[in-house]
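note to self — DONT lose this again. spent like an hour looking for the file last time. sequence + predicted structure for the chain T wanted, 110 res
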Amino acid sequence: RVRTARSRLRYGGRQRCAPALVASTLLVPGYVDASEVGALARFIADLNPDIPYSLLAFHPQFYLHDLPMTSREHAEEALAAAKAAGLTRVRIGNVYLLGEPYGHASHPTV
């Protein structure tokens, strides 16, 4: 009950609802780059710049096991592109999956 009372005070007496629309993009190395994320983000920002947008790291499994994990650099470039496109609520969703730079000895190159 204390948490509920605090959240109501924080939001001016209104309870916060989940957003009606959330967007996400899986950052698959060699398939999705920062320029593509920027174009998607511009489209989303034209609808509403406050739409939450999550950039998700790729982890190779099943069919795409020959690709590397999304690198931190790739994710940060995509994050910068989405913010530059005008989105205000952008985040990297699964930071713990980010890998080494592409071409690093432990990952195949793309």
